[in-house]
Amino acid sequence: MLRQLEGSHAIARSVALCRPRVVCAYPISPQTHILEGLEELIRSGKLQNCEYLNVESEMGALSVAIGAEAAGVRSYTATSSQGLLYMIEAVYNASGLELPIVMTLGNRALGSPINIWNDHSDAMSVRDSGWVMFFAETNQEAADLHILAFMVAEKMRCPVIVNVDGFILTHAYDRVDIPSQEAVDEFLPPYAPNISLDVDSPMAVGTMVPPEYFMEVRCLAHRKHEDSLALIERAGSTFEEKFGRNSGGLLRGYSLQNADTIVVAMGSVAGTIKDVVDELNHEGGKFGELTIVCYRPFPREALRNSLKNSKRIIVVEKSLAVGVGGILSQEIELAMKGCNVEIISVIAGLGGRNITKSTLKEHFSKKNHEKMTFLDLRNDIIADQYRPICSAAVKAEKTCPIQP
Amino acid sequence: MFQVRIHGRGGQGVVTAAEMLSLAAFFEGKYAQAFPSFGSERTGAPVVAFCRISDREIRLREPIMEPNAVIIQDCTVIDSANAFHGLVEKGFILVNSNHDINHGLKNVSLKCISATEIALEHIGKPIPNAVLLGSFAGLTGILKIESVIEAIKTKFSGAIGEKNIAAARVAYDRTLEVG
Q1: What is the ipTM metric for this complex?
Q2: What residue ranges do the domains of chain A occupy?
Q3: Interface test with A, best of B6, B51, B57, B59 (most A CBs within 10 A)
Q4: Residue closest to B131 by CA, chosen among B173, B102, B99, B92
């Protein structure tokens, strides 16, 4: 049914349609409205057979989800930013134990300095944790990806994070089609757990794995991820057949045919980029856009196929590895190894800096690009505050500046 | 695409006003996107909220920098928020005020309405958002008053909803009367 909803409430309704038995989270902006929405659905009886647990922290929240999944029930949690950092030990445990928890990450910057606004730094902090990671471009996708997430998680036996841009999506009112309970029930079968702790038949979950087996555990996790690319793609097409929308899969291309320059992005900024691409093409440009829907497992082959005929790839990314540069652009560089294509990194929107159509357009139109640019950087502040460490002076020092 | 920017202070229902606008547009079969300026959410702090209305899907995610209409819920933020910045030619300004304001702009439609007074009279609280939306429907003709009423109903059920609806109707009628 078509509705005009806040993104967070669309997600809450969508999660409720997946019939989780345990919902547990600790409030943190910008994720809080999702949990409030679910709490309301449980209290009003619209979501039945579901226990909503209040806990003392994010660490507790994900640990409850782990316990619930180990006991064999479908579980859901959500967090953002520092909350994710606070639960990081449990994040690795959940994937290591192959528990198909679904978690929404309302994407937000990481402190310090403290900042509540949107970027993808929190997502990038768990990119190697073994969770599947989806990124939503719109609130419709945010809602749909949660239904897909439960399906993929349970088929793979692996937890899934659905990334939703904090505030930009979580707090935006938009048109969303919420599917019927019958349709979701047909798409997502009842949870058939791999393990189910039972007092009458005791077993241990999460015991120590010695060096003789640990490498194999990791190797198998890696293979599972690689093998699941096809599964995720198929789940996306099955979803499209059932619901008439392409909300999942690995990648989504826009105007890619004959594109010399392809802009790659994840999340809500892709919408603004498509508007820019249309304007540039209207003025005679040859631009396309490629959205990464599934970031983990990383769809290397699919990316290569979509990008190989372009001359230039501009990666617009909302995170930064300090001392390294753009994270996504480096992964794309590896994927494109051997192809004669220029790859440019645009760091944009950190800590909620607005990403506007006009600056994107100006940047995409440039003939010559720096390898990496901070979009809309306030150069006056940089000029005032930047204190270069002169490497010549360091080399000229005869004595070690730090005495043993 | 018709873009609306709403300025006010925390506690005046600025964000809710944008959400109700989007609901009203949705009820008319349009696409609409409402979002707040994501600042500090404290009572009394300046707040900005946005609403885009279109016949087509809205993909753009930047803040509204060239609004077709500006709604001012609190006159004291006009200067500090640079509230009329970027307003397009032949745009609309709707101000919660019982006296005229000087906006220094040419070619705009201005309407001042004492929304707080109307709100106090009908709702019993100084929350002018629904009142201003009633006036907005009259001033711009972008949305029907019936859709605005439906939006208020969706957000506020029961007696509080009815009171807000009554206040919005008064503002709508008063806006049309003056012309």
Answers
A1: 0.95
A2: 2-243, 251-385
A3: B59
A4: B173
